[in-house]
Amino acid sequence: MGNGMCSRKQKRIFQTLLLLTVVFGVLYGAMLYYELQNQLRKAEAVALKYQQHQEALSAQLQVVYEHRSRLEKSLQKERLEHKKAKEDFLVYKLEAQETLNKGRVINNNSQHEELKKQHSDLEEEHRKQGDDFSRTFSDHKQRYLQLQQEKEQELSKLKGISK
Q1: N or C, which end of the chain has less CB nearby within 10 Å?
Q2: Does residue 78 carry a pLDDT above 50?
Q3: Which residue spans traverse the membrane (predicted)?
């Protein structure tokens, strides 16, 4: 022992300790590997869940954009119809005024009475068309407000979903 050599008993104890250290090291490494694999699977599951959620939100957003586009096209179409109805009303009004002016020039009683009747009929038709125009305008305005409100509700729903 004086020359640095260990006895057999000490070698065995040393080998046993070394073997136990290696065995515990391997067991610890296996447990650590198993735990890391579990955490990796959990992280992949969470990532997949978030990816699916993101895809669902993207799909919903695409639907909203398409719906918004349709609403804007519909609104533009209604505005054009409203403009056309207004122009038609103005043309009719000018024609009625022209007919009235012609009636004032004519001195013949029968023609004058006929023109009065036509004028009365035209005024009644003018009033009805004015009422129709007012109703159409009101309907268009109400539809526009409804479409605007639907768009805002959908946008707020989407904002609520994305949060």
Answers
A1: C
A2: yes
A3: none
